[in-house]
Structures are given as structure tokens and as C-alpha cells.
Amino acid sequence: MSSTKAPDHYDLLVIGSGEAGKFLPWMLSAKHGKKTAVIERGRIGGSCPNVACLPSKNVIHSAAIAHEVRRASAFGVSLSGIDPASLKSDMPVIKARKDAMVKDVNGFQGFFDMFGVEIIRGEGTFVGPNEIQVGGGRALTADHILICTGSRARVDARIPGLLEARPMTHIELLDLDVLPAHLIIIGGGYVGVEFAQAYARLGSHVTLVQRGDQLIPREDEDVVQALSGILAKEGVRIITSADVQSASGTNGEEVTVSIRSSPGGEEEVLRGSHILMATGRIPNTADLNLDAAGIKTTAAGHIVVDEQLRASTSVFAAGDCAGSPHFTHMGFDDFRVPSVLFTDPELARVGLTEKEARAKGVPYRLAKLPMASFLRTRTLGPGASEGFAKALIEADGERILGFTALGPGAGELLPVISLAMKLNAGYRQLADLIIAHPTMNEGLVELFLLHVPDGTS
């Protein structure tokens, strides 16, 4: 034992209070009378409500308002005596609004108390297969342990000068109360793309550098091309197939980033005021002493789990630390995988992309519909009808294999598709729906009624 006092024993111990660490102890304690506890070294509720998903959407919404005000005349709204081009973003006010939202929604401690789940503050480390020590003192044992410690933004220390330049992650960016004059974003995934558009709309010059040959590499090329065109029209400079060679200067003052087109291309020096690193995330597993519990990790640090998320006989892992895609809801249910990129227009997907289907050798039929045929978009002003929706239908049946939409509020289309996929409802059942007019979901009826090619059977 790790101390002379017998360890406190629980039915379930959870390390981390984020999305994966909330619902299971809540349900087991409230509905089944189990003794549960959650160990948390940081903020209750994890990253999403405190420093990630919700705070970033506040800033994105402020940017959307700025964008609409600048083009108010296109909607027949006159700003008397005001030149929309002179619009300024009040970053202290934007930050204060974000901070107020975080304070308002962060009542998770009350939920843990209400459901009878003990919160134990401190850092938990394994000292045995079923035993955890908190803060080097209190010893705890449990029948089952769930690890959901999440992840953190990656900053590549191998790039010469980068650490000395003190680049920002999304956390520091969201805490800025000044507008970057020129924001250089390294990484063209979800985080990089969302912030690129938002800060361009707020008034920053934005350069987005992506190592691969397209932004958002998991998505299909036609989707990314359409979105990249929209970003470029809003002033975002996009550089793909480029490696960062070095960085210098001081973030917030003056920075330079040297990039080289790959493979073997010319070098270019980017000069800006701020650097945002958006090159992926690192699992928070290094401090858990997993060897003491016989738990293995991948080379990247993710916990190795089976199909039931089991890491050992009595230990499970869920969410980012187990290698799931880094969306909050993935920690709640790792096997239903919708995702939304909160650009304008939104990019929403559930299930297979075309390139995933081809890679897996899955035959499919493609139904595709321009966003202009979603009649609601015609009411929303310039650019709202850009984009499209597409669905992958099994070649010899009616099941929906995947769905992607690029359009206004596209994420709100996903629940209908996700439910159909969950229930194994065929696309014809969606084509038979009566949906209120004119809503975005109405376009799904046309997509599935008129645009699914004949099957092979």
C-alpha cells in the first residue's frame, strides 16, 4: 500500500472532469447508487467550457457580427454617417463577453454535488493496477477506473526559435485583449481554419500555413476547395504544402516565420505580429505513471484500448487521451462521429467521406445537391448559397454511409442524418419526410428524393 491508512475505495474513479468524465459517474451515482469520485487537477468541466469550444464560438460569433455589419448595405440597411470599412473590433469587450459566458456556464461543481459524485482536487497517478495516489498523499482504490485526461495543444519544440518566440495556442489567443495586426497560423485543421476566418473578419491580416496539400486533411477535396475559396475571398492567405523552417522575434511584438514549399521548394519569410500554433494535440498521459497499472500507450502517448475502450482488466480510457478525434462529444460516445467546423458557412459531416469509402473499398452511390437548392439559403444574403450537400448511399441498398454539408448552419442538418444512420433507416424514409418550409432540413428531402442514382441491385 502507498500509505499506512487504508485507501478509500470506490465503485468507480474517474481521472478528469471533462466530457468523458462527467456523464458516467453522474449516471452511476444518481441512478444506481454507486460510490463514485472524479479526480481533477485543473478546471472543473475540462477544456470545452473553459478554454476551447464555447469560448471560441463566442469570438467566432463576434466576428460574424462584424462581417454582417460591414456588408449591411447588401441587406438594405444603411449605417448613417458610418463607413463600414472603418469598423473596429473592440477586443477588450469581446474578451469580456467571452469571460462572462465562461463564468456563467461553469456550474459543473453543482452538478457533481447534485448527483452525489465526489470531486477530489489534485493530480492523480497510478501506484498499482487499481490504486491511485492524489497529490502524492491520499490513496484511492476502485473496482473500475476511467481515464479521460484529455489533450493539450502541440507546440513543436524541434522548430528552431519557435519556443523562444513564445507562440500562442488557442488558450492564449482567446485571452488576448488586442487584435493581432498580422496573425500567422501554423496548422490548417479545424482550429486553424476557424480562427483564420474569425480573426480576418475582426480585422487582422491572416496567413494560414498548412504542411499538407490541403486544409482539413480528413475531408474530401471538393469540400475543402469550396471552403478554401470562401476563405480566400475574405482575405485569408492560404499556403499549403509548406514546412516551417524556423521562427524568431517575440509574439505580440514582431515575429518572423520561415517556410519552405515542400518538397525542396523556395524559402519564404513571413512577417507578422502574432503566431498561433494549431498543429494538433498531445494526449495528457505522461504524468499518470501508467506503467504501474500495466497500461500501454502508443508512440504518440495515446492509451491503447480495445473496442470497449478497455486499457486493462479494470481500467478504461475515453476521449482525447485514447486517441479519438478531438471533439468534445467524442468523449461522450466514441462510436457516433458527427463533426462540425464552425466556419461561415459551416462544414458538417457524419460517417464516411468519399476518400474514406474508396480507401476501405466500400462501394457507394453519390447524391449531391447545391446549397442553392436549399431554398432557405436564398433568403440569407450574398454568399449564403455557396456550398453543397452530399450523401454516400450503399451501392446495393438504402443505408446512408456518410453525409457532408457545406452551408449556413450545416451542423443543424446532422441530427436528422445521424438518427437515420443510428436506426438503419434507409434514405427513402428521409425522402418521405414532411419538413416545414422553408427550413434547411427541407433540402434533405430533395437530396434523397431526386438525386440518388439507381442502385446495382
From TrEMBL:
> Superkingdom, according to UniProt?
Eukaryota
Q: Which Gene3D superfamilies match?
A: 3.30.390.30, FAD/NAD(P)-binding domain (3.50.50.60)
Q: Where does NAD(+) bind?
A: G187, G188, G189, Y190, V191, G192, V193, E194, G280
Q: Which residues form the active site?
A: H437
Q: Give the signal peptide as a residue range, or say none if absent.
A: none
Q: Which UniProt keywords apply?
A: FAD, Flavoprotein, NAD, Nucleotide-binding, Oxidoreductase
- Enumerate the spans annotated as FAD/NAD(P)-binding domain: 10-330
What does the Swiss-Prot or TrEMBL cofactor note state?
Answer: Binds 1 FAD per subunit.
Domain Pyridine nucleotide-disulphide oxidoreductase dimerisation: residue ranges: 337-446
Cofactor(s) the record lists: FAD
Q: Name one GO molecular function term.
A: flavin adenine dinucleotide binding
Per the record, a Pfam family?
A: Pyr_redox_dim
Q: Where does FAD bind?
A: K57, G124, T149, G150, S151, D320
Q: Which InterPro entries match?
A: FAD/NAD-bd_sf, FAD/NAD-binding_dom, FAD/NAD-linked_Rdtase_dimer_sf, Pyr_nuc-diS_OxRdtase, Pyr_nucl-diS_OxRdtase_dimer
Write out the GO cellular component annotations: mitochondrial matrix
Report disulfide bridges, numbered on this chain: C48-C53
Q: Which family does it belong to?
A: Belongs to the class-I pyridine nucleotide-disulfide oxidoreductase family.
Recorded hits in PANTHER family, A to Z, give:
MERCURIC REDUCTASE
This chain belongs to the protein called: Pyruvate/2-oxoglutarate dehydrogenase complex, dihydrolipoamide dehydrogenase (E3) component
